[in-house]
Amino acid sequence: MKITEIREKLKTVGVDAYVVSYGNRFLGQDVLPEEHKLKILCGFSGSAGIAVVTLNEAFLFVDGRYELQARAETKSKEITVIDEMPRFKSVCDLLQQKNISAVGYDAWCHSVAEMEYLKRRYREMQFIDIGDLLNINKFRAITAYNRDIRFTGMSSTDKITSVTEVLQDYQADAFLFTSADSVSWLLNLYARDLPYSPIVRAYALVSKQGEVELFADDLQGAMKGKNWEQFATVLAQMENTCIMFDAHSTPEKIKMLIGDKVKLIKTKDICALFKAEKNPAELQGMINCHIRDGVALVKLLSWLDKHWHGLKEFDVVKKLHEIRTAQENFFSESFATIAGSGPNGAIVHYQPDAEHNSSLQENTLLLLDSGGQYFDGTTDVTRTIAIGQPTTEMISDFTNVLKAHIALARMRFPQNTSGIKLDVIARSVLWQTGQDYKHGTGHGVACFGNVHEGPISISAGGSDYGFKTNMITSNEPGLYKEGKYGIRIENLQYTVQSETADGFLEFRYLTKVPIDKKLIDKYLLTEGELAWLNEYHKNVYNSLAPYLNEIEKVWLKDACSPL
Amino acid sequence: MKITEIREKLKTVGVDAYVVSYGNRFLGQDVLPEEHKLKILCGFSGSAGIAVVTLNEAFLFVDGRYELQARAETKSKEITVIDEMPRFKSVCDLLQQKNISAVGYDAWCHSVAEMEYLKRRYREMQFIDIGDLLNINKFRAITAYNRDIRFTGMSSTDKITSVTEVLQDYQADAFLFTSADSVSWLLNLYARDLPYSPIVRAYALVSKQGEVELFADDLQGAMKGKNWEQFATVLAQMENTCIMFDAHSTPEKIKMLIGDKVKLIKTKDICALFKAEKNPAELQGMINCHIRDGVALVKLLSWLDKHWHGLKEFDVVKKLHEIRTAQENFFSESFATIAGSGPNGAIVHYQPDAEHNSSLQENTLLLLDSGGQYFDGTTDVTRTIAIGQPTTEMISDFTNVLKAHIALARMRFPQNTSGIKLDVIARSVLWQTGQDYKHGTGHGVACFGNVHEGPISISAGGSDYGFKTNMITSNEPGLYKEGKYGIRIENLQYTVQSETADGFLEFRYLTKVPIDKKLIDKYLLTEGELAWLNEYHKNVYNSLAPYLNEIEKVWLKDACSPL
């Protein structure tokens, strides 16, 4: 449905505006290409955003990461791009300015918590659930399978017991899990439904007796489930029961369907909390798959070093895919590979394809951000590579980003420190040079699940959830010069107890891929930074060399020699 | 009234607990010694805390700064000290555990915002205003005077106009200012009522026509005011009007007295926002008074260097008072001087007096935290001094605190960055050594007003108000080893636009007092840190030398020679 068609519909329903969010009933995670409402609406293909169509205007809110991309993709004059946090709240502020008070939205796509907040804050506004005007909801067949316990480290029976213990504590009858990644983790149940995530898109209702009922499109295979129509019936028939749920991950529509006959207890998604602390099998899997992923990257980088002439960005993406696919336990990529050559590197989430595809030019930078899903874990790595000879400006900028990366990598901090505070550790290194980056420093990462996983993050406006041991995040400061180049250095890392300081945590890196020494000015590094870099490279070489051929080994030895 | 007497009263009134906060009707600021309810109740003399008396127990909540002091001062077994944020909320959590639901409190001593939050959060609790059982409220005579415009930089007429402009924007009839420091700033009206602050303890009601009505104990001198009984009558008689106020600084009692006949608009205390950004006259005054204060400190330190043998902590306090008093424009100290020798230095807010007074011992540290109110500004400085020869542990710890101090002093950061984020810049230097300090890194400072001034601060749990230019804060990381020593290095600093990075701010220091080089291991400093220190000392010498005698000048030259 185009913008003009939505306007016709608005007139029929009698509302003045319609909100189109990126999310579906899984609230922003796990969106299939054909469900991308913003792409259907206006061409924007990024994975965060919210649009609003009024009777005579239309606006798309995106954050800094997607600003350039959104402007490039939405060329029509029908919609105005606004660089502001893409939240329903931003939309309300705008509508308030325009004296628009009757707002249509889809209550499946906004959480209970969000709508409670908005209805409290914008009392004069009417929020009217008019459902999905873009008509993306179809019941797709999904075949589920069980993941082996040697990878999960814990049986679903044991995980369900952890949930029923919480239900007993709260004297509740059931927990409704509405985050698909929590459901997959809880039941060790996965699918091949999504392009970049192995999770199964389902809700789970877990009773205090440990019985599990699943709800999904059309779930087959290792476990069956009811479909969304049947789910609505189940909700409508509930009474004299007490259900726990996470108001931040549960669509408001569910509360509407349940009505007042059920006691609801709002809490955090307890599976999200459980799975953030990786168990020993998961951690070992993450360590193992990062060696294979490092091998894949080294095979690519050593090949690219010799063969970049005449290549286009998308050739690099395809080659990397080909190499990764050959690795043991490979499942899929963990997101669409970003390969931004020259100015494209400054578009934070630029993804080349048949249409957008520049040639690699001599004396430019190539920003390569990619990751894999392996049966034993998930990877996400960014390297920025000098194609030909870098300029002194590139070297100086890259070295500063490296200093920011190392500052966080070497950080020691008290248990329960939030990522909001750790974000500053990396970011302030760039502040000191009068620069900044418009994205978080790090995000939580699943072990075989979503490459962006809550509740932990390392970002300025992020979660205040505190760090514990065995939590995995990325460390990815960057620097972007519009029209010139982009730089980002990203490793995954996990938290361990400090061996020397009681009550303190430290990071250990998972990612093992050389950092381009052509881009480092060693005289800008402190002794400690240089020692970190040399130790890192030594470890990378020792970990990967056994899996490489002679040519690759020689290349890696040089790439990892001390500075 | 003792704890046992309070229990009798509780039985009469029919509540199960009574809350005693540190604050009075100015909510924690500006408490006179004879009004110190916690001291009356249990002997604790610190300036933050909250106690609760139940029918068979009593508890005192204090934060980390006051933990050791509270245990030392409340020796009786009647009250249990709890190291937890001293908030009414902490009390409620405890009472909830104990199944106590009817809580008595004094609605003059808790803000509208706090009580709204508590009543929403603890729905099952009854909060019953039973007034001040410790009977501290007396109507004291206060003589007010006007501060010269060459110091204030702005007439009260112009300041009032800024307020009436805001009232017009909001279509409100009046603003009720309930923070005494805001009232003093607005009217350029001061008094000699409080031991460490020149402000006048009054509320002000400013009408949209710019008329000002004052309320206080018994206000005389440059402006007259109504007393608190008359204030209650004024409130009760209000109707058909619209009043703006700050829910965080206004006692709940006021809202109770006003009732429902008045439209209330909650907003920030706009004077607090205005005065946080110092005007040129105020900034120049701060610079000037810091030179005189530096001269006073150098006179003390050079004397102490030769004469510490046989001295006690309180002798140092008295000597410093004697020297400061002789400085031009001196008004009072800005807080009770902290002089902690050896283990006393680890008690963050230790103040020696006739009773608590240790001798200075050879080979120990002396932590000296003091400040002055001058007619042109306010100072607050901490230096830690080696008495005799320091140990290598002392030197290593002091150098780390210095590195933390310099990290913040040299920081560059985007405009509107909050102090929550800047706190990490200093603190993380100590984290890296596996250590931390249980207080904020910095607080806002008035120009001739409260030495702790909102809304700006640099602390982990502090204000998220963003930094603008010309804002003054302290920079005071520390390190405390119980039973051994305390270290803190504190300068005041103000924000300026970066000259080289657009949109970024930097700090400039105000405090000019040498940092004890005997305690610095220069080989632990980076080149940049050492350059900062040497430049700082050079500036200190050049600024202060003209005002010193020859002996002091020689001492300072040595103290400020480059490392």
Question: Which helices and strands, and how do they pair?
Answer:
2 copies of one chain form a homodimer.
Chain A: H1 3-13, E1 17-21, H2 37-42, E2 50-54, E3 58-62, H3 67-73, E4 80-83, H4 88-97, E5 102-105, H5 112-121, E6 126-129, E7 141-146, H6 149-152, H7 156-170, E8 174-177, H8 180-187, E9 189-191, E10 202-207, E11 212-216, E12 218-221, H9 228-237, E13 242-245, H10 252-258, E14 263-266, H11 270-276, H12 280-307, H13 313-325, E15 330-333, E16 338-341, E17 364-370, E18 372-374, E19 377-378, E20 381-387, H14 392-409, E21 412-414, H15 419-431, E22 442-443, E23 457-458, E24 472-475, E25 478-481, E26 485-488, E27 491-497, E28 504-509, H16 527-544, H17 550-559
Helix pairs in contact in A: 5-10, 12-13, 12-17, 14-15
